[in-house]
Design brief:
heterodimer; A: alpha+beta; two-stranded antiparallel ribbon; 4 strands; 22% strand; elongated; B: mainly alpha; two-stranded antiparallel sheet; 3% strand; flat
């Protein structure tokens, strides 16, 4: 590993967390989207993280994939709705706002922590470069 | 064969150089722990600094060589591993997704390691200044 790989490790986290925040924001924005461009109701999405194992299981993080949330869609009884099915139920998105808010908070905390790590590492590197100077 | 000045210089600086190098390795491990605080199944790692440092100081000068006694034997390539053993951190509490990173513990370990890195840096710098002073003509 080179001297600067600590930046690779710490820099991977903010971008992974930002993707997580984007997905959360998309979910929240579409919490009531009964239909989308393909005619289907919006399905909540989630990110899956994985370690970029460089050596001995030590490495940065990346988004492995963005998957559809497997939880069941929410059915609302609205017989007068134009998209209601035979029994009068409309299929609503399976977005849980509480879950998404917790996701956002967790992602932003992790983002901040990793930016702090990068700052500290940068300062240490700069200080190391002054080694030997009077 | 007499001593070479650069050997003695290296000896004088070796102690602090090893400390600095190991502190940097630990920084990487701790940064990786913090970066992976949300990765499912990730196990937090760390090194036993005291043991690693003793090992690094002790093995200097003796290199483990692969016995190459026949023409077909492979020669060891690459530098020796920076750290001999990366251990697992014992988690304080269980988690649903198998992640054992306690962000608070990791952050305080990171801060602690940063301060000790700076200390090693300062001590190494002072040693260098001392040597420079000793070598100065007047």
């Amino acid at each position: 590993m080179t001297m600067f790989s600590i930046f690779d490790i710490s820099a991977s986290a903010p971008s992974a967390q930002a993707k997580r925040m984007n997905v959360s924001a998309s979910n929240l924005a579409n919490a009531d989207s009964v239909t989308g461009p393909d005619g289907q109701p919006y399905r909540a999405r989630q990110v899956v993280f994985e370690t970029v194992a460089a050596q001995a299981g030590v490495g940065g993080v990346r988004v492995k994939e963005v998957i559809d949330d497997p939880s069941p869609m929410r059915m609302e009884y609205r017989p007068e709705h134009p998209l209601a099915n035979g029994e009068g139920y409309v299929t609503m998105p399976n977005v849980d706002p509480v879950h998404e808010m917790v996701n956002m908070i967790s992602a932003s905390r992790a983002y901040q922590a990793n930016v702090e790590i990068m700052n500290t590492s940068k300062q240490l590197m700069l200080k190391t470069l002054t080694l030997g100077e009077g | 064969m007499g001593f070479v000045v650069t050997d003695r210089l290296e000896e004088a600086l070796n102690h602090h150089r090893q400390a600095l190098s190991l502190r940097h390795e630990r920084q990487k491990i701790l940064a990786a722990n913090i970066a992976n605080a949300d990765t499912p199944g990730f196990k937090a790692r760390d090194i036993d600094f005291r043991a690693e440092f003793a090992f690094a100081l002790g093995r200097r000068g003796e290199r483990l060589e692969l016995a190459a006694t026949a023409p077909g034997h492979l020669a060891r390539r690459g530098a020796p591993a920076a750290v001999s053993e990366v251990l697992y951190r014992v988690p304080d509490q269980p988690s649903l997704d198998g992640n054992t990173v306690d962000i608070d513990r990791e952050r305080s370990a990171f801060v602690d390691n940063s301060v000790r890195y700076q200390a090693a840096l300062t001590l190494l710098n002072q040693r260098i200044q001392g040597l420079k002073g000793a070598m100065a003509p007047e």
